[in-house]
């Protein structure tokens, strides 16, 4: 009896703890060069075994293999997080000391939880929907946005932070973890969305698109939230760039001192927000104001995944016990800082939900005759 592909991917991913436990207790396998070779060999094996599970199918989306490999690495991540908090032991000692020591930081632990829970869940759902012939575009874009943000901060933070002085060979395994999600986004952006246009004779949609922003309370609130997010993004960017203004100095010392941590991750996070997220937030303000911006349907999903991942890791690390006490959020300001960060996270997520729930508003409207002619030609 053939095992369903999604079950095969799930079973393959669960081999990760056994492999980690074996390497952790066999000393000659713990050389950094050997570990890199083992990692390449294991991921190649996962790819080949995943291929066997769909060999009977006439055609398989290449994304299936990407999701299968990342499912395995997600289980590695949750194993790392669980060991650091004492739920399990004997799996990751060698890996932290000889492969990726930065995963021992608060940032690394919080990133591992996100990857091992949310990413893993998304991957399994996407594999299931793929094999069932159901759409998974939205889930894939959320996952890819989250992965891209995670890897940009991790790779850059390691290089510019205190761990950059002694990079081990296995560090470069993170490069495919950045490149492949970018490829996933590009692949979906090149796939046409159905339907891509709406006939203009759909009166309700046409009337809704002609309303001003003031006549659309939900979009007005989201616009105000986006503008607030833009201001907060720019402000925190200036803070980590060591702006000399008094309120910047006060904020980093009294509200979010974690941004001064020498690990490098918090500073890189704020710079990614400043140089990448801020332009997208600004573009989204325009997208809410001008109907027919089809790009909003995809980019808001990527943005929501990226912001949620970075905010989870940043906020979690700001209160984590692994972060030195002087860099944690002060108890007196804890409620205000956490609330502000949660609101900042909620804005792009709510925007993505709004776009997903009412996709027709963001689709281009054409005259009914033109739409009919286009169908006849096809």
Automatic annotation (TrEMBL):
<feature type="transmembrane region" description="Helical">
    <location>
        <begin position="139"/>
        <end position="159"/>
    </location>
</feature>
<feature type="transmembrane region" description="Helical">
    <location>
        <begin position="220"/>
        <end position="241"/>
    </location>
</feature>
<feature type="transmembrane region" description="Helical">
    <location>
        <begin position="102"/>
        <end position="127"/>
    </location>
</feature>
<dbReference type="GO" id="GO:0005789">
    <property type="term" value="C:endoplasmic reticulum membrane"/>
</dbReference>
<keyword id="KW-0677">Repeat</keyword>
<feature type="domain" description="EXPERA">
    <location>
        <begin position="60"/>
        <end position="185"/>
    </location>
</feature>
<comment type="similarity">
    <text>Belongs to the TM6SF family.</text>
</comment>
<feature type="domain" description="EXPERA">
    <location>
        <begin position="218"/>
        <end position="352"/>
    </location>
</feature>
<dbReference type="GO" id="GO:0019216">
    <property type="term" value="P:regulation of lipid metabolic process"/>
</dbReference>
<dbReference type="GO" id="GO:0055088">
    <property type="term" value="P:lipid homeostasis"/>
</dbReference>
<keyword id="KW-0472">Membrane</keyword>
<dbReference type="InterPro" id="IPR033118">
    <property type="entry name" value="EXPERA"/>
</dbReference>
<feature type="transmembrane region" description="Helical">
    <location>
        <begin position="268"/>
        <end position="288"/>
    </location>
</feature>
<feature type="transmembrane region" description="Helical">
    <location>
        <begin position="7"/>
        <end position="28"/>
    </location>
</feature>
<feature type="transmembrane region" description="Helical">
    <location>
        <begin position="64"/>
        <end position="82"/>
    </location>
</feature>
<dbReference type="InterPro" id="IPR059044">
    <property type="entry name" value="TM_Tm6sf1/2"/>
</dbReference>
<dbReference type="GO" id="GO:0033116">
    <property type="term" value="C:endoplasmic reticulum-Golgi intermediate compartment membrane"/>
</dbReference>
<keyword id="KW-1133">Transmembrane helix</keyword>
<dbReference type="InterPro" id="IPR047195">
    <property type="entry name" value="TM6SF1-like"/>
</dbReference>
<feature type="transmembrane region" description="Helical">
    <location>
        <begin position="34"/>
        <end position="52"/>
    </location>
</feature>
<protein>
    <submittedName>
        <fullName>Transmembrane 6 superfamily member 2-like</fullName>
    </submittedName>
</protein>
<feature type="transmembrane region" description="Helical">
    <location>
        <begin position="334"/>
        <end position="353"/>
    </location>
</feature>
<keyword id="KW-0812">Transmembrane</keyword>
<dbReference type="Pfam" id="PF26083">
    <property type="entry name" value="TM_Tm6sf2"/>
</dbReference>
